[in-house]
């Protein structure tokens, strides 16, 4: 999966990065390389399924889909 990220210089120094297609997925770093490493980790955590959040009606069905 490829996602576009936006990297911007931070007023405090370093960089801020966010993923427009994943609301609230944001990170920062001192260098661009560190910033990209940090946002990759943030994306992985953002997309990680949380079983506690899974609620399915009695007629519902859970399946997996690769993208």
TrEMBL record:
Organism for this UniProt entry: Candidatus Scalindua arabica
Source superkingdom: Bacteria
Cross-referenced SUPFAM superfamilies: TTHA1013/TTHA0281-like
Protein name, entry field: HicB-like antitoxin of toxin-antitoxin system domain-containing protein
Domain HicB-like antitoxin of toxin-antitoxin system: 5-64
Matching Gene3D superfamilies: 3.30.160.250
InterPro entries with a match to the protein in the record: HicB-like (IPR031807), TA_system_antitoxin (IPR051404), TTHA1013/TTHA0281-like (IPR035069)
Any Pfam family hit: HicB_lk_antitox
């Amino acid at each position: 999966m490829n996602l576009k990220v936006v990297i911007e210089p931070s007023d405090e120094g370093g960089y801020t990065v966010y993923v427009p297609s994943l609301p609230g997925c944001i990170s920062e770093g001192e260098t661009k390389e560190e910033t990209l490493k940090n946002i990759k980790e943030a994306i992985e955590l953002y997309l990680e399924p949380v079983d506690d959040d899974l609620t399915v009606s009695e007629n519902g069905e859970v399946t997996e889909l690769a993208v």
